[in-house]
Each structure stands twice: as C-alpha cells, then as structure tokens.
Amino acid sequence: MTDKFSKVFSVSVDPDEFLLLNETGFEQTIQLTEGQLLLFDGTSMKDNWRTLGVDWLIEPSVAHQNLAKPDIAGLGASTIVVSPQFSSLFLSDFGKNVELLECNLADEQWFAFNVVGFDEALNAEHTVRNIKNGKPSRIRKFKKMVFTKDAIENPGLFRVREAGLKYFTTDAKNSLYTIVKEHGIKGLYFHEVELA
C-alpha cells in the first residue's frame, strides 16, 4: 500500500438506513460464562479468536422494518464486518495493523475488522475539545478534530486513542475509503477530517 494520500475520513454506519449486526444470544452467554467479553480495544485477538456467531439486530419498530442489508455492517458500536461478497478485497495485504476475524452469519463467512494499535495523529494545537461545565463532553468530545498528516502510520484503516471507538481511513490507494468507492460497497459513510 502506498502512503500517499490527501484526505482523511472518519468511518461510520447509518442505523437508520442499514441493518446492524449483533452477537447472537448464545455468543453473549458463552462470553459471560467464560468471563471473556469481546472487546475491540486495539489489542490483537487473532491467536485467541474462534468464529463469532452474529445475527442481524432487528428493531421491531415500524421505522426500522425497511432497512437495507449492507455489504459492510456495523457490529454493535465496536467494529465493522464485511460480507463474503467483498471480503476477498481485504483478506490479502489490506493493512499490517488490521486483523480480519471470522464471523458466522446464517452459515455465511463474514469478517470483523480488528484494528490493532493506535496512530498518534491527533493534532493538539489545532484540535478544539468540546468542554461542558469545565469537563470534556463524553458524548461529543471535539468541536473540531484535526490530524497531523505525517503522524498517520496506517492510511488504510486506523484508530486514534483520544477519539474512542471511531475508525479513520484516507484516500490512499487500497485504503478502506478507496476500496469502498471503487467497488460500490454499501453500508459505510465517510466524513472528512481536517489535516494539519
């Protein structure tokens, strides 16, 4: 992958347009019983991973009955999962910091993205934190988020510790953003983040 890029984007899903995935009840019971809750916290999981059972999170309200099935879906609030139709685009040489972990959705093999580590890309000088009553807001941490371009080590897909669960990508060749746009993959939205 080339490191040449000019734009950075945050990655998000739209739960009002596309279905989300959730661990099956059986998976949640196993995790609680074994005391091993699934956390996408920046650490490697490939050596201890077993195929994760997932299912569509269906909201019974009328407003959510016509949601589309995405090509890349959100798995709860913690990560994204790619369908078998597009997984081959990411399985070989996508990013040295990304583990693709097998999931089972109705006997189909989907893959969850586990981004290992964090890029130290937040530009403290130009970023404006959202302060409420003298404390940082827990809901919306930043009024303005700015990254330092040279500090982005993993342009395909990366996380920044200060930004919580958010994922970021660039417009570099073979990045998540570029692959999604080139192949018309549905389910993700990209919002540009400022660079310094």
Give a written overview of the molecule:
- This protein is α+β, with helices and mostly antiparallel strands.
- Helices cover 13% and strands 31% of the residues.
- The chain is built from 3 helices and 14 strands.
- The protein has helices at residues 25-34, 84-91, 176-183, and strands spanning 8-12, 20-23, 52-57, 72-75, 79-82, 98-105, 108-115, 128-129, 131-132, 135-136, 142-144, 146-147, 167-170, 189-195.
In short:
By secondary structure, this protein is an alpha+beta fold. The protein is built from 3 helices and 14 strands. The model has no long low-confidence stretch (mean pLDDT 89).
Structural class call reads alpha+beta
Number of helices: 3
Number of strands: 14
For the termini, the CA-CA separation is: 22 Å
Beta-strand fraction estimate: 25-35%
Average residue pLDDT: 89
**Helical content band:** 10-25%
User: Given the C-alpha coordinates, what overall shape results?
Assistant: globular
Q: What is the radius of gyration?
A: 17 Å
Strand order across the largest sheet:
2-3-6-7-5-4
What is the string of helix and strand elements?
EEHEEEHEEEEEEEEHE
Largest sheet: 6 strands, mixed
The stretches of 5 or more residues where confidence is low (pLDDT under 50) are: none
